Amino acid sequence: MKHRVAGRKLGRTSMHRIALLRNLSTELFRHERIRTTLMKAKELRPFAEKLITLSKRETLHARRLVLRDIHDKDVVGKIFDTISSRFAQRPGGYTRIVKLGPRRGDNAEMALIELIGAETAKKGAQPAEGKAGAADAGGKAEEKGKGAAKTKPEKKAKPAREGDEKDKKHARSKAAAKPKTESKSKSKSGAATRKVGKSGS
Asked: Is residue 98 within 8 Å of 112, Cβ to Cβ?
């Protein structure tokens, strides 16, 4: 009989597994919705919900117990200020798991784990576009226009190297040598025609 072996190993040692759950729960409370494998999501659910239950006490001792697992003070402040008040009248079941199907590559089952009410909280947090947004857009357009009006500085001419001068001299000498060879070939061809003409006559 396998007693006292509840929970999934997730292919990790106990310390690595605890660190994984702490990191996942930190990101879950920060973004209120994360995408991970189905097995990790199922292990994360009780871990994160216990932290939310602790935060509902609103005592210094409870805050210190949460800080033991969540090392980001900003996230801990969010848990105690907003998340605990959202679930004040809820006895449990603070998270939701939605299956997303297999992942391409290793075919692992993927899932979306989120806090209940995350969709309404995100909608309320979006700022309404108004005159301020239009003014910002106009200012950005003006900045872009100013940037386009600026001309690029001209590039300075690079100083000539010694090797380049040698190459130029070598090319000049070759160009000067070519007509001489052509004149020699012409003179040879002319002499040949003269000889042919004499022999023909």
From this structure: yes
